[in-house]
Amino acid sequence: MFVLCVLFSVALMSALHRVSTHDLVREATAAGDLIAYRLDRGEIGNPLPSIPPSLIRPIQVVDPAGKVVAATADLQGKPPMARFLPKAPRRSASGVVCDHVFGAGKCEIVVAQQVYRDGTWTVYSAVPAVPFYVYPGLLALLTGGTVVATASVVCGVHRIVRRSLRPVDSISAQLDEIHKTSLGRRIRVFIAKDEIRRLAESVNYTLDRLESAYEELRRFTADASHELRSPITAIRAQMECALLAPEDIDVNALVRDVLRSLDRLQVIAADLLTLTRLDEAAMGERERLDLAELVAALLDARRPTRAIVRRLASGVTVVGDRARLGQLVTSVLDNAERRAERRVTVAVRREDADDGDPRFRAGIAVLEVLNDGAVAGGGHGEPSVSRLIRLDSARGGSTGGAGLWLPIARQIAECHGGALVVADSPRGASFLLLLPLASPV
What we know:
Blueprint: H1 2-41, E1 59-62, E2 68-71, E3 92-98, E4 107-116, E5 120-128, H2 136-180, H3 195-244, H4 251-279, E6 287-290, H5 291-300, E7 307-312, E8 317-320, H6 322-339, E9 343-351, E10 364-371, H7 405-415, E11 419-423, E12 430-436
Parallel strand pairs: 7-9
Antiparallel strand pairs: 1-2, 1-5, 3-4, 4-5, 6-8, 9-10, 10-12, 11-12
């Protein structure tokens, strides 16, 4: 605002300066015209005769030889006030002359007019030059106006900004309170549909993600700790027994038991590394895959311990990493066989697009793996598989698994734009892998 006011003031003073200078040049020209008229009639003397008071100006008449032959009383005995002449065909010219005959520090606008009378005579008339600010009062007015306008705008903008940022301060205070208390709290969403409301909604969405990530990390830590504690406890117990009764220990059996526990630790470490890489979205090359063909190939390569019923519909095409999807399907099949009593049912089908979920606008590719064992986890069936939900029986060492297959499988599904969910089932567990159908070629 200050810059705009300054620019406006400079532009205004420049315009007034041009207008005032033009008016003064006209006045000096008018005074010179009167003297030129009298010179042409041979009616001048030295000092120059009086003229109307409104046109009293310093004037000199210079003959063709460049000598001052007549001048007003204030310029008697002084040299010509200027040396410039009009350029043909012009009869007059003007310029600013400083100091010289006018005194130190004074500037005058001088107008030169030529008269032809037995040679070329020159009439010089002068008026005081106008300073750039035109009038001191104008400069003071513009300076004061600039200061007042700038101060008013600054105060107004400051008040508006403070009023606009008040909701932001409220959001900041609520965030500080949430930081001190619980991630379960949320920011109050404002009624007005403006940027502040969108900010509050964005903050709440971020808090939802943070709370979910925190709960996920908490469950992951507890579950991973349990998985690590089992083999470590087994190794420790075996080593302590060996120390207490070394003569009763079969070294070969002890080594085999310890190696089995170390194998479990190695599997757990590999699963944890896999989870980390999946979190970083480290996926391989993606290609179009027939989900039924992929599942059939994996089933053909297995040595099942339970009867497997296949219901594979062809033409269910997805886009994904063959190795990762194979890992996901294998993990789900392994879990189903461990839980099943007699058989495992594997079905592949396609379902219509879900308008409420942008991931499945082209349709849904569904892989369902159902076992007829006990109800999963005593009623752990949920609409979605949390990263660390595991069946209670999977925590024992008899399964031979690390118990982290579900988070790995779910992460692979999410990296492919899908989901791994647990469907309602009267018996056993029904796992559904939902993937977006590939667009038609």
